[in-house]
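note to self — DONT lose this again. spent like an hour looking for the file last time. sequence + predicted structure for the chain T wanted, 175 res
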Amino acid sequence: MRRLVLLFLIVFALPGCGGKARPTFIDEVRGTYRGVGIGDTTAVVRRVFGEQRLSGLDEPISPRKEDFVDIGGPTVIKLSCPTKLRYEHVSFFVCDGRVYGFIVAQSGARTRRGVTIGDEHPKVRARYPQLTCGEAPFEGGSYLYCGGRIGKRRWLWFGHDPVRSITVAAVPLQS
């Protein structure tokens, strides 16, 4: 029995050693990132991502280690509450204790349709033909994006080309 357990550990542990990490999954239809997302409470987010205080108007909406313009965040997010839970490579938009959107800037993060951070816009357009692609203005310039509504109460945004961030929300995202 001991040998069987050891063999099991070797077979399942070795593929992860020294290899690339598996891409982090974003389910844009369900509105989840790493299984947490739209409709979940802040307690659920904290249980998966760690304890973090809610941030308000004085802090950016982007993930902690990211600059909003550098990652190409949506220039207009119909926020009803100014609070968010910000982590190193993801930021959750929170209202009344529940998540209603998030921005992911994690290398390797991938959507259901296989668009990964680092992919170029032709792939985004091919996988999401219903999205509008263009230039999002910001003070001092603009950056490329693809975004729009993908379902009932579900909006999707890919910032920059190649993609530097993916935003999913239950509220409109616009340029």
